[in-house]
Amino acid sequence: MKLFVNSAFEINDNTEAYFFGNYAQRTVQGGFFFRNPTNRGGVYRGPLVNPTTGLPSDADDAVASVRVGDLDGLGQGGNCISGIPLENGVPNPAFLAQVVADANCFSFLETIPLGFVPRFGGENEDVSFTFGVRGLLDVGTGLDYDFSVQRGSNRSDFAISNTVNASLGPDTPRNFTPGGQEQTETLVNASFVYNVDVGFESDLSVAFGAEYRKEEFDLFAGDPASYALGPLADQGFSSSSNGFGGFPADTSASQDSNAIYVDLEADVSENLTLQTAVRYEDFSQFGDTTDFKLAGIYHVSDSVRIRSAYSTGFHAPTAGQANITNVTTQNVNGVLIDQGTLPLFSSAGQLAADFIELDGNGRPTLGPEEAENFSIGAAFDLGDTSWTIDYYTIELTDRVAAIEDLLPNLRANVSWAHSQGDYNTLVRANYYGGWDDTGNGVNGISSAVLVDVSVSYQLNENTRLVAGIDNVFDTYPDKNPSAGSLGQLYSEASPFGFNGGTWYLQARYTY
Ligand SMILES: [Ca+2]
Ligand SMILES: [Ca+2]
């Protein structure tokens, strides 16, 4: 469901107030990749065992097994084998029958013999509104102003079904509400535009302004079973809802920043338009950053234009990336360990930074990610046809850790567009530099070039028909070396997907 409001009313001839807002709500659900039921770690996959006793073994004849839990505790009450031996991937029927018959011994083959594919989804709610006043002040040649306040929030409440908290054994629920998260942003803006005659071909347009931005991030705790460390945790059964563990506690984080900017643009001569901009921004936690942009278009002749732009940019870690604490207890090789994410600014985070520095790996810092963008292109007319060619590169340094590690550090794109009469054609080559799949621990995935082509035809005044192929040469990323156990042939984080080429037909109707 989506609702929009967009309104403005005149206060006087030179002043207008405006308001716009939106509300959207949707429910999302998706599945996980299928995995072989007998090798899902922490649920089914057991230790290597002696095929005739079902007890742990590191001998040459040891075989894989399906994990068995001892419900009244190890070393007290009844005893159980450690794993049901697998023979050609099939659980040994005699051992399986023995585990089923013994009420104190438990394997997930008793309750969910065919394995399970979790369904993950949630409710998403998005609300935002903007209120502002804009107008013209009678100063010199006239000063345009625009003051506004904007607030937006996006909340997701997650749900995961058809899964287990394996450490709860036979008592596990199958459906969980692992909690939620909300990002809220508040922006206060003041912007101005003033035109000055400095003797150029056109007036010099001077835009300047200031912005205050506050970002808040909240995590909401899940239901207790979604993060519980159940009684079988010390026997190798994983804790928390499998597939997406619940958040154990409510957590909040926030940061704010102040920015000022100036942007100048003018037709310097009949043939040359130049733009330059500078922006300074000060973050409550990352110090400050100054970025600039320089861009121009030069008309070589009536039919040939050259354009180029260079800019620096930044991407500050979000309040969530910088501040969030999300710790769950896991059983790792028989030892209970608190695992999760801690803010680098916390005392625990600084202690970890000390260790990393002592190891000679340099002290980790979290600051704005910096980018340099460069583009150059030409547009020209030949007879009845017009042509453009553009090249751009984006180079990033100081990647914000985690998700962004997955992105290639260099992307480039060359496109060739051609229009003649009612036809437009486009050929585009996209270059993705090498990247690391940190989620699966696979580094050094190869760079790739993908080529897209499309043709469109203006059928009549309102209708345009488009046919195209994205990824004409059906390029795929490198295969995931651990595809077998994860059920993922390719990394799901591939910057250009893993679906190969696609073709499409479109009809666009404008009215
Ligand atoms: Ca026991
Ligand atoms: Ca049993």
Automatic annotation (TrEMBL):
GO CC aspect terms: cell outer membrane
Q: Any idea where this protein resides?
A: Cell outer membrane
Q: Where is the TonB-dependent receptor-like beta-barrel domain?
A: 139-403
**SUPFAM superfamilies from the xrefs?**
Porins (SSF56935)
Main location, first listed in the record: membrane
Signal peptide per UniProt: none
Record's keyword terms, sorted:
Cell outer membrane, Membrane, Receptor
Q: Which domain of life is it from?
A: Bacteria
Q: What is this protein called?
A: TonB-dependent receptor
What organism does the record attribute this protein to? Opacimonas viscosa
